[in-house]
Design brief:
Elements: H1 11-24, H2 28-48, H3 59-66, E1 69-70, E2 75-76, H4 83-100, H5 110-129, H6 138-144
Antiparallel strand pairs: 1-2
Length: 146
């Protein structure tokens, strides 16, 4: 699955994915936590694609800023992350947060880690094969100086 992304896959992300895959069978919670870190590495690439820096070390902040924003919190979205892809990242983030704070209501299994890994691979497939590097929200783009 990882190799299907081809040579364009960022080297740091490739290494993270290999580590996650190795961890998955022996420590599914650890693999899920590693996917949160990989999400931040992905966000660095996504923001760099429009000439911006990752706004935070908080994955939620990054997803919201890259997506449609949050009017209630007065966060303007850049419109570079489709809702569907944002949802996949939010799912990974939710699993990782529950695991990180030991508040999960279910026992996280290899299957859960595999689901999260597949979601993340879909995010990367979108980025490398479908994303055109432009904001879908011209107003947010002009307001951010991109």
């Amino acid at each position: 699955m990882i190799d299907a992304l081809g040579e364009q896959l960022d080297e740091n992300l490739h290494n993270e994915l290999l580590n996650i895959y190795k961890t998955l069978l022996v420590n599914p919670v650890g693999a899920i936590l590693q996917l949160s870190r990989a999400g931040l590495l992905f966000m660095e690439l996504l923001f760099a694609s429009v000439g911006a820096s990752r706004p935070s070390d908080n994955l939620w902040d990054c997803i919201v800023r890259a997506g449609k924003g949050d009017e209630g919190k007065k966060i303007k979205g850049l419109g570079i992350l489709p809702d569907e892809i944002a949802s996949l990242l939010h799912t990974i983030r939710t699993y990782a947060n529950k695991a990180d704070h030991a508040t999960e209501k279910i026992h996280l299994t290899v299957e859960d880690a595999e689901i999260c890994l597949r979601l993340f691979l879909r995010v990367l497939k979108w980025f490398y094969f479908e994303y055109n590097g432009e904001s879908k929200n011209p107003r947010a783009r002009s307001e951010s100086g991109f």
